User: Fold this.
Amino acid sequence: MRGYHRPPRDPAELRAANITRGTLARIWRFMRPYRRRLSGYLLALVASAVIGSVPPLMVRALVDDLTSRHRSVHEIDILAAGMVGLALVVTAFSLLNRWLGSWIGERIIYDLRTRLFDHVQRMPVAFFTRTQTGSLMSRLTTDVLDAQNAVGTAASVVSDVMTLGATLVPMFVLSPAITGLALVVLPPFVVMDRVMAGRIARLSRLRMQLNADMSATMSERFNVAGALLVKLFGRPGAESAQFSRRAARVRDSGVRLALLSRYLFAALALVGAVGTAAVYWLGGREALTGSLSVGTVVALATYVTRLYSPLTDLASSRVDLLGAVVSFDRVFEVLDTPPAVADRPGAVALDTVAGRVEASGVWFRYPAARDVSVASLEASAEHVAEGLGSEPGAWVLRDVSFVAEPGTMTALVGPTGAGKTTLSQLVPRLYDAGAGSLTLDGHDVRDVTLASLAAAVGVVTQDAHLFHDTIAANLRYARPSATDEELVAACAAARIHDLIASLPEGYDTVVGERGYRLSGGEKQRLAIARVLLKDPAVVILDEATAHLDSETELLVQQALAAALAGRTSIVIAHRLSTIQAADQILVLDGGRIVARGTHESLVASGGLYADLYHTQYLRGGDELAAAG
Assistant:
């Protein structure tokens, strides 16, 4: 019997599955490293099946000795000892099979899971903005486990076939008539299994859907943002009632599934009992006439009990194999999606980086969904049936050109949707330009390795993300080899060390999921400290001071002024205090640079920047700018 039983697949999904040579070849590539142990596993299964067919013959000899007038106590002792010895051998093979099956299966899980995780990590940002996180996690968990079941299913088929052969051959030798009678009950046995299994499959799929809905509810409500929203709108009672209804449906489906499964097993047991009774009936009649010995009848009855279990497994093995193929295909579907942003052949590593950033005639639009995503991972079920869009989005950046010299600050200003964030994301190559070029020290960023580019560019976003770990671990994510002294220096420069030192556990304080145990300003300062620890040549600040009050911002701006000396910085900000410090300001509107210059020159020349200055900055109550 198989060691892992997954819920049945959707029949439509199985009908569409095909066991092709290409799929088998890819599956074999994952199994090939373990081919020796796999061969040993199959041989052990064969040996176990053959050895398991011997005990009924020994029972036959033992019973015949007991009913014989010329019985020998010595022969009985030998037969009993032989039966114990065979039982020990079968047990040893069973343990060996279990160990080999687990050893091979767990390594296939490891290989698939690590390969998939590594591949997903290299996918572009657009992949994650379109993909359901739960669906992606399902590929790494459920589908990988289902794919691993292919080994157990194939091994079970071999074992079942050998068990059938090792059972039917001695049965036919002992009595062809009784063997034929035992096989007569097989058709209703198979029909009952197929009918009931179909109902169990449908109910199992319903239960999977209900469990998925319940899990999605818990996932959304139990994260910090979801729990906060529930409390702010006073909805705990309504949420509990809704969850109770979903949990009740899961409960009721579980009861129905348990009853259907029991009906199936009871029906199969009844058919098996009928077959056994038929063997005893005909065998008993032949024993009375002297055609068969009593021991032969007992042996045949023992063989019958070995006959129906492998037949049941073989009846469902095709579905199990197709289900495993579907899981492999779902894993391969993600692995076959090439990263839209990857190292080109011959990409060079950046060595010493001065930090000169130049954009020349850059055009960009977000890629078509088909190029960056997988239909079955999309949020809407309709996308799976209709496929993903093949047309890219509208142009977000249009013929953008600028130069940011080393050690200077460039501010990006413009209304919402002007393309500021998109432009900044082209520098660390989160996306690739559709036309034109963006260079770092004269090297097109598409021609350098992603690892060296990531080391040269540091980014602080508006929503600073922190892992559920200690402050020290979050800081060392930028540089794992950083010493405690270097952590303190970076945090002191970001004006956050004194706060950390005042905490009971200091740098060993766990920040909580997404850093929710810290205020917005504290998270931002930690994010800035993390970038300072990384020590990049180019720093991008995307609304990095948006969550800071004026006093805190002043401290951080002073720290950044010293820390960013000698580095190129590209800053997206809505605060006048940040923009006034820039060496050049690029004003974007509709994806184009419509003006550029210093704060004073742009205000004097009028236009969009002057309008933003008077409507957004001055009326926004920028106390820090007023104080300046």
User: Anything to note?
Assistant: The chain has three domains: 13-175+320-339, 176-291, 406-432+447-627. The CA atoms of residues 12 and 326 lie 11 Å apart. The chain has 25 helices and ten strands.
